[in-house]
Design brief:
The complex is a heterodimer of chains A (1026) and B (477). Chain A has 1026 residues and is an alpha+beta fold. Chain A has 36 helices and 17 strands. In chain A, the strands form five sheets. In chain A, strands 2, 4, 5, 7, 9, 10 and 12 form a seven-stranded antiparallel β-sheet that branches. In chain A, strands 3-6-11-8 form a four-stranded antiparallel β-sheet, with no helix packed on it. Chain B has two domains: 40-222 and 305-475, Alkaline Phosphatase, subunit A, CATH 3.40.720; 226-297, no CATH class. Chain B has helices at residues 5-18, 22-32, 64-67, 72-76, 84-87, 126-130, 148-157, 167-175, 238-259, 262-285, 292-298, 308-320, 339-363, 434-444; strands at residues 52-58, 111-114, 119-122, 135-142, 185-191, 218-219, 325-331, 370-375, 379-380, 397-398, 402-407, 415-417, 419-420, 427-429, 432-433, 454-456, 459-461. In chain B, the strands form five sheets. In chain B, strands 1, 4, 5, 6, 7, 8, 11, 12 and 15 form a nine-stranded mixed β-sheet that branches. Chain B has a two-stranded antiparallel ribbon with strand order 2-3. In chain B, strand 13 (419-420) and strand 14 (427-429) form a beta hairpin. The chains are: A alpha+beta (1026), B alpha/beta (477). Chains A and B meet through helix 15, helix 27, helix 31, helix 34 and helix 35 of A and helix 1, helix 7, helix 9, helix 10 and helix 13 of B.
Chain lengths: 1026, 477
């Protein structure tokens, strides 16, 4: 029997029963010492007590101040280690009571047994270069299964049966592409009777363009990739070219050593390509601050610290953080060695205080996307032509409805229109002298100019006003006879970025975004081309309404019409935020607010349209007919999906063909000198150090003629004798496929890390990976074709009790899908998914504007302070492309355990919370997916039974059992009954989401099936990969 | 003897839902050993004085000079330069580092001694003055950070580095929940009218960092959807949702039994809690049953959801319903400019509701078991930023010494603790580092901050970090 694999409780049982299994120092003893003793008797020489260290063989031999060896082989009673652990003397006992550390009785038993058995010391396993272990001699084809099978038989366990084909296909699709199999893919696999059908499926999936997306995701976590700068203001940055580089690298199976080398040192390669420069953004994904008051030097230290941390954890599985302030307490990393690593990352031209105004923190370059292909450019061009044609094509039914609406609107303009003057009470602004804005005689507000000003104006509404329908702001020409302070492109004018009204029972000086009054229609007295009044709906700072430049010497006004009329009786105060954030001084001089009753007397419909619409269709001239049609295409809501389609495609073409910014690494002409920093404090500089690597790892020789650089570091990391890099890499790929690594602490292979569950398998995988030329797809193929991987994940009570975490691997792995996969699963299943690869990050549905509620919006030129949702295909892209704001990550992702990407993460937790239920049941993204899936079902013929069967099979990739079908039948019956008498309830459910739905389907039926599909998407099975 | 599947599933489900909290993990370990006599876990061995916390976080850096620490000395020395020996080596931010001299600026409003200990409290805070006998004013707070992000991250997560867990998440992890109807840690945001918008705040401050994400603070917002996606989609009724959840539970239960998946059982329970929250949250936010006297106490703005006053009232309602940790983040205290006009407004928004909360808790007998904290990430400089006495002048950040107050939860009322020098620049007596504050908060809840640890990346992480921290014994009853 191989004792090495004995679980600790069994080991203990045997020990206490007088049997004598072998105690392994590395597995059993070292973790106890590391946890309880190393803080005072470990690598940190400054903290070391009694000159004793227990993290080296020498320390054990020579002992501490007493100069006696720590253990005497075979004799616990004569060993100081044992004596001190069991002492009754409070001054003698170790660990000392004030350390709050305790060695348990079981642990003591193990230590005593280890001393009895000879007290053999071993170095920490992960710091020793692995050698290829012999394959266990059992009958399994795949070497992985030999290791696991051997372990299982030692445990008295056996492999589980292979999972059924449907489960396997779903598992493989999800693991290798992040997406479930389509109906056709599943059918194709099931009908493939060839012996190597499974292997062929593996090959197909490894070649899928979605493979790169799936592999990239964990690396994005590890590299703390995000679209914003982080820290307090958290403005936008351009990082996506690097994300696309990663996707491409995995898709093209770039050797992993090259993958690391280009990211660490692409800029130092000979004549680096722009792709190799893009790769170096890996070291720039740390947060960068643009908070005023920042001390640049302090932050430059933080940035380099983050690079060391990320490189350490994501590539070497080494936690380095301790070394910033003192020698590492647990791993043999000295403080001076920490700063030698730091020195590698401290030579670029970066700035401590940088990244404001949407300008990337330096250094950055412009480059083309690595993912662009001629084929996609050509196809997008064709798509664009089609979309433009579609937009221009007549839509007679829709246009007729629209014309009726327009005619009705024209008739109503100015009906019962009445302006209610308001008593202006207060006006505030965020920045500068508060006297820059003043209320004059309670009638109007005068401002002294300035940029980035969210003006909040509070007015009292006259008693008896009652119900109002909208709000008008009137801008008066003031000194020099112009309405605004604009210079450059807006002489004498201004740009209103947005306007937000809020009714209150008391005179609030500021608006509250949660209770703002929504509005629809926006009109203005005039507008500058490109700055139409309705653009105030878009909160972006450079998009908004500007009066026509020819009109800036006359009074101008803008009017919003509330979605619902507001009764002011119990809320007689109106606070309005007017945001002038354009820059160039484009803010107004003097304005006043008034409420309106009745219908707005302004219309944005041009005179020509009004005339033409007024005519009976048969009396319109050809040019009038064309004018109406063009106006309908350009402005009607009915045509907005077509317009979004065109504009998204134009942007896509620009993404594929244009140049884009990306932050990169470089080497400064005058690189900073790195010093050891006392206690890590940036201003307390001690000795200067040059780049170098820690002594406990393989040596890296310094060339005679130059210092070491990042390229040397990269090449050292992938040297065959490096004990960490390949182990850490294969462990993380394993983790991706099994839910947990062979070493559970995938970012910490140090002495505080976890002992590998299958140590020999880990080493075998690591060396085979290296020998294959660091071939990622080969490695993954080897794993997923193993018997170990293909087992059913079903658990028996016995097994669950014996091995709750499935460390032995007597069954297949089972875990909840990641946040991204859950959303992608819903999109793919419903057919909404848009499978474009790469490009700038997108902004799908978002609850309100969470960013604006916590950001500096309205007082800063920084970008990404307000969430402006995208439309069209960008709502349905894969989740890896969702815009990632560090200080407020997408809420639907954060609830499913996604990290905020402020620091390197190499594995996500899995929790179950009610917030997740809210998202899957109520978030428009999922309601819309359910609605689209229902539409698919209803567009195919079939009985209820057949449809329920199909739907279940489509969502879970397996056939439902009879008892499950029965539950679904009751469910659909209940949902039908619910909507039978309530078509408007049905319609309001179907209105969720921006994609169009088939109006010909009966609403009640469609709504009922929408909820049925929602039920299926909420199944635990749907969000589990098993 | 083998236990049957349902028993195992149920037990694991119980541990699965609560298993990510510290107490439950400890419980699991003890159940495994068959030893329940040694409950609770070592970290929880202290006798708790408080069951819950309400933390009224004042984001931006309230001026201790103007509000709590001013003195006649400053009035006498108004306009004189801060002596270099007082200023010492203290680094100042990039915003005032370039100033040639540092003129002392007196408090913008009269400040007087109140309560039994004669605590200095500004006339801008008349309500706080009135509760001086109930609060403990700590004037010797200090932090190393001098800019917002590092400072607010430090005080809320225990370190200036990114990626750690927030205080509230630690409390949720350490203590678990008292209620099945609400998350254990809830957060509300508001914006003051003094300076709009104030310094940004962010989810890191109430995030779970390396702790399981169920411990992250859940935002309670004003308006229609107080918890994100709480409401059913349009056209879906509550009775209908009940039916859907029943079907879902039956299907999930069958799946769990078929595959032996305890995670699925935990998921069924999470869905059930979501259904309960759909009732408990609207009940919480419905203020129609509060008598007028409540609104009189908290002030008229408490009728308006989303205001600081409404959030203070909501905090009381949350602790009444068993929520463990309630944290308000109120923005707008960063008065680099226009201190004269911004600070009075900021005080007007916050003074009455903050004091009302203490009075209200006391009246309801909840103050003893609820620890209340009022404070920000740092204070402000005694010297003027900008032209002395001008309407646009203000104060820069100052971490070396600042003031907070606490009440209830085993904290002595009517005392002041700690002193600063004449210029309110440095701590002169009884320093309280922000680490000590966090250690004190844990202590009052019965947690030894040295023992509430989470092993992560080779370190036993704690909210108090690696430097020594001590509960402030001098302020405890």
């Amino acid at each position: 029997m191989n004792w090495q694999y004995l679980p600790i409780f069994l080991l203990l049982t045997l020990v206490t029963q007088g049997q004598t299994p072998e105690v392994s120092f590395n597995r059993d003893i070292q973790p106890i010492l590391a946890r309880n003793c190393f803080a005072c008797h470990g690598p940190d020489e400054h903290e070391r007590k009694a000159k004793l260290r227990l993290d080296t063989a020498e320390g054990f031999l020579t002992g501490g101040s007493s100069k006696e060896p720590v253990t005497v082989a075979g004799k616990p009673g004569d060993s100081i280690l044992w004596e001190r652990m069991v002492s009754n003397d409070p001054d003698e006992i170790m660990p000392p009571p004030d350390s709050h550390k305790e060695i348990s009785a079981e642990e003591k038993t193990l230590i005593r047994e280890w001393i009895k058995q000879g007290a053999r010391y071993e170095g920490h396993w992960a710091f020793i270069t692995p050698s290829l272990p012999a394959l266990p001699d059992i009958e399994e084809k795949n070497p992985i299964d030999r290791f696991v099978g051997d372990r299982l038989s030692n445990e008295g366990l056996a492999f589980s049966l292979e999972a059924d084909r449907r489960t396997l296909a779903r598992r493989l699709h999800l693991d290798l592409t992040g997406l479930p199999p389509s109906k056709q893919q599943m059918a194709g696999f099931l009908s493939d009777g060839k012996a190597n059908a499974y292997e062929n499926l593996v090959t197909r999936l490894l070649n899928s363009p979605h493979f790169g997306e799936q592999l990239a995701l964990p690396w994005l976590d590890a590299s703390r990739y995000a679209d914003t700068n982080g820290y307090s203001i958290d403005g936008g940055r351009d990082a996506w070219l690097w994300r696309d580089w990663v996707i491409k690298a995995f898709n093209e199976n770039m050797p992993y050593d090259q993958f690391l080398t280009e990211q660490l040192a692409g800029d130092l390669l000979e004549k680096p390509s722009s792709s190799q420069l893009i790769a170096t953004a890996y070291n720039r994904h740390h947060s960068v601050t643009h908070e005023g008051g920042t001390i640049g030097e302090e932050n430059l230290v933080n940035y380099a610290v983050d690079r060391v941390k990320t490189t350490g954890e994501s590539i070497m599985g080494l936690t380095t953080g301790c070394g910033q302030c003192h020698d590492h307490k647990y791993d043999p990393l000295k403080q001076v060695e920490y700063y030698k690593l730091f020195a590698f990352f401290n030579t670029l031209d970066d700035h401590g205080h940088d990244g404001d105004r949407g300008v990337n923190p330096r250094p950055f370059i412009e480059a083309k996307t690595p993912l662009s292909t001629d084929a996609e450019v050509a196809s997008v061009k064709i798509e664009l032509q089609r979309a433009e044609k579609e937009l221009a094509s007549p839509a007679p039914t829709l246009q007729a409805t629209w014309e009726k609406d327009v005619a009705r609107e024209l008739k109503r303009i100015g009906q019962e229109f009445q302006l209610i003057s308001l008593d202006h009470l207060t006006a505030t602004l965020p920045n500068g002298d508060p006297n820059r804005i003043q209320v004059k005689k309670n009638e109007s507000v005068e401002a002294a100019g300035g940029d980035f000003s969210a003006y909040n104006v509070c007015c009292r509404i006259p008693e008896g006003t009652g119900v109002v329908t909208g709000l008008r702001v009137m801008f008066e020409p003031a000194n020099r006879g112009k309405v605004g302070f604009g210079g450059k492109s807006m002489p004498g004018g201004f740009v209103m970025s947005t306007i937000t009204p809020c009714f209150n029972p008391f005179p609030a000086k500021n608006i509250d975004l949660n209770t703002a009054t929504p509005y629809d229609r926006v009109t203005a007295s005039s507008f500058k081309p490109g700055f139409r009044p309705e653009l105030v709906h878009d909160t972006s700072r450079r998009i908004g309404w500007a009066p026509a430049l020819s009109e800036v010497d006359k009074e101008q006004h803008l009017t919003i019409t509330f979605q619902e009329p507001i009764d002011t009786t119990n809320q007689p105060y109106l606070t309005t935020e007017l945001v002038f954030n354009y820059g160039e001084g484009a803010s107004p001089k003097k304005f006043r607010l008034a409420l309106i009753k009745g219908t707005d007397d302004t219309s944005m419909l041009p005179e020509a349209l009004r005339k033409a619409i007024a005519l009976a269709p048969e009396h319109r001239t050809t040019s009038q007919i064309e004018f109406i049609r063009d106006y309908f295409n350009a402005h009607s809501r009915a045509k907005s999906p077509a317009r979004h389609h065109v504009s998204n495609l134009k942007k896509r073409l620009e993404v594929l063909t244009g140049n884009h910014r990306i932050m990169v690494m470089n080497t400064s002409k005058k690189p900073r000198v790195t010093h050891v920093l006392e206690r890590g404090f940036y201003a307390d500089k001690r000795q200067a150090v040059k780049p170098g690597v820690p002594a406990f790892l393989p040596a890296l020789e310094v060339p005679d003629d130059r210092d070491l650089n990042r390229l040397d570091l990269a090449r050292w990391l992938v040297r065959p004798d490096h004990p960490l890099t390949s182990r850490v890499a294969v462990n993380r790929f394993w983790q991706m496929l099994f839910g947990r690594g062979i070493v559970e602490s995938s970012a910490d292979f140090g002495t505080q890390g976890k002992w590998p569950a299958h140590p020999e398998l880990l080493d075998w995988l690591a060396l085979t990976f290296q020998n294959s030329g660091w071939n990622v797809k080969d490695l993954i193929r080897r794993i997923v074709t193993s018997r170990t991987y293909r087992q059913s994940s079903n658990t028996t009570p016995e097994l669950l009790e014996r091995d709750p975490l499935n460390e032995f691997l007597a069954r297949g792995p089972r875990f909840r899908l990641s946040a991204e996969m859950i959303r992608d699963h819903a999109l793919a299943t419903s057919g909404l998914l848009v499978r474009r690869i790469g490009g700038p990050s997108v902004k799908p549905y978002h609850p309100g504007d969470l960013w604006r509620q916590v950001s500096h919006y309205g007082s800063t030129p920084a970008t990404s302070q307000t969430y402006v949702q995208d439309h069209g295909e960008n709502l349905y892209r894969r989740s890896i492309y969702t815009y990632w704001k560090r200080t407020l990550p997408p809420p639907g992702m954060a609830a499913f355990d996604a990290p905020n990407r402020e620091a390197c993460t190499t594995g996500r937790g899995v929790t179950n919370t009610p917030l997740q239920a809210f998202i899957l049941m109520n978030d428009p993204q999922y309601v819309e997916a359910s609605r689209a899936l229902a539409q698919q079902l209803l567009s195919e013929e079939g009985s209820d039974q057949e449809r329920l069967f199909r739907a279940f099979e489509h969502v879970t990739s397996r056939s439902p059992r009879q008892d499950e079908l029965e539950i679904l039948k009751t469910a659909i019956a209940r949902e039908r009954a619910r909507y039978r008498g309530d078509p408007s309830g049905a319609r309001s459910l179907l209105a969720v989401g921006e994609s169009l739905h088939n109006p010909d389907l009966p609403a009640a039926e469609h709504a009922a099936w929408t909820n049925l599909c929602g039920l299926l998407l909420n199944l635990s099975e749907s969000v589990t990969r098993r | 003897m083998m236990t049957d599947l349902p028993t195992i599933l149920n037990r694991r489900a119980f541990l699965g839902t609560a298993g990510n909290s510290f107490g439950a993990a400890a419980l699991t370990a003890m159940m495994a050993k068959g030893d329940t006599s040694s409950l609770p876990h070592p970290a929880l061995r202290l006798a708790p004085k408080a069951k819950r916390v309400i933390y009224m976080f004042q984001s931006g850096g309230p001026s201790h000079i103007d509000l709590f620490d001013g003195s006649p000395f400053l009035i006498k020395n108004h306009g004189k330069h801060l002596p270099p020996e007082v200023k010492g080596e203290q680094r100042v931010t990039g915003m005032t580092a370039g100033m040639k001299n540092f003129p002392v600026a007196k408090p913008v409003a009269p400040i007087r001694q109140c309560g039994p200990a004669g605590a200095w409290i500004s006339d801008l805070l008349p309500w706080t003055q009135k509760i001086a006998d109930k609060i403990c004013l700590v004037r010797s707070m200090n932090t190393e950070a001098i800019n917002h992000d590092p400072a607010i991250t430090f005080i809320n997560t225990g370190t200036m580095q990114l990626g750690k867990a927030s205080l509230g998440a630690w409390l949720s992890y350490g203590l678990g929940s008292e209620t099945e109807n609400f998350p254990s840690y809830m957060v509300m945001l508001s914006q003051g009218t003094g300076k709009n918008p104030g310094q940004p705040i962010y989810s890191r401050l109430w995030g779970s960092g390396f702790l399981p994400s169920e411990h992250q603070g859940v935002l309670l917002r004003a308006g229609a959807d107080p918890v994100l996606y709480l409401d059913n989609p349009p056209g879906v009724k509550r009775t209908q949702r009940r039916g859907q959840l029943d079907d879902l539970a039956r299907l999930n239960q069958a799946f769990a039994e078929q595959t032996g998946d305890p995670e699925t059982i935990a998921r069924i329970q999470a869905y059930e809690m979501s259904y309960r929250m759909q009732a408990s949250v609207p009940e919480l936010t419905d203020l129609s049953k509060e008598p007028d006297s409540t609104f009189d106490l908290y002030g008229p703005e408490s009728r308006k959801p989303g205001t600081y006053a409404a959030n203070c009232l909501m905090a009381r309602r949350l602790v009444e319903r068993g929520v463990r940790c309630v944290q308000l983040f109120h923005r707008g205290w960063d008065q680099h400019i226009a201190l004269q006009s911004q600070l009075p407004r900021q005080c007007q928004d916050t003074d009455q509701p903050s004091a009302a909360l203490v009075l209200d808790l006391e009246k309801r007998g909840l103050l003893d078991e609820t620890l209340v904290i009022w404070g920000g990430e740092f204070g402000r400089t005694v010297y003027q930023q900008g032209q002395l006495d001008s309407t646009g002048a203000g104060r820069d950040h100052h971490g070396r010494a600042f003031s907070i107050w606490m009440a209830g939860g085993g904290i002595k009322g009517g005392i002041t603790y700690g002193e600063t020098d004449d210029y309110c620049w440095s701590v002169a007596k009884d320093p309280v580092h922000i680490r000590d504050l966090n250690a004190t908060i844990l202590h009052q809840l019965g947690i030894d901050h040295n023992r509430l640890v989470f092993p992560y990346r080779g370190l036993d992480e704690k909210i108090t970090g690696v430097e020594p921290a001590h509960p402030v014994k001098g302020i405890l009853t």
